[in-house]
Design brief:
Blueprint (H helix, E strand, L loop, with lengths): L20 E2 L4 E2 L7 E2 L6 E2 L13 H27 L1
Antiparallel strand pairs: 1-2, 3-4
The protein binds zinc ion (ZN).
The site of zinc ion has 8 residues, from helix 1.
């Protein structure tokens, strides 16, 4: 229904501020989302910058990147150890 970073549903249409777009069943006001834009997924999220290791990423991308790095390290490690064995 909404392709936005966040949606707040507040009160009834009659309580909407003057600058909102009014529809028969709702009034909509579009504001910039709070937070920073994540470098990886481009979502604006207040969680961007919370991870000191990945200050330009949101929390879910920081998690994914950490997991990806872990598996990369495993591959590098296994390659190195197999070379050492030979
Ligand atoms: Zn992200």
């Amino acid at each position: 229904m909404f392709i936005v970073s966040s949606v707040d549903i507040q009160g009834g249409p009659n309580e909407a501020p003057e600058e909102s777009d009014r529809y028969p069943e709702a009034a909509v006001i579009v504001k910039h989302a709070e937070g920073e834009k994540c470098e990886r997924c481009w979502e604006i999220s207040p969680t961007v910058g919370q991870d000191p290791d990945h200050p330009t990423l949101c929390d879910s991308c920081a998690d994914i990147v950490k997991k990806t790095l872990c598996s990369c390290r495993k591959i590098i490690f296994s390659t190195l150890s197999s070379k050492t064995v030979k």
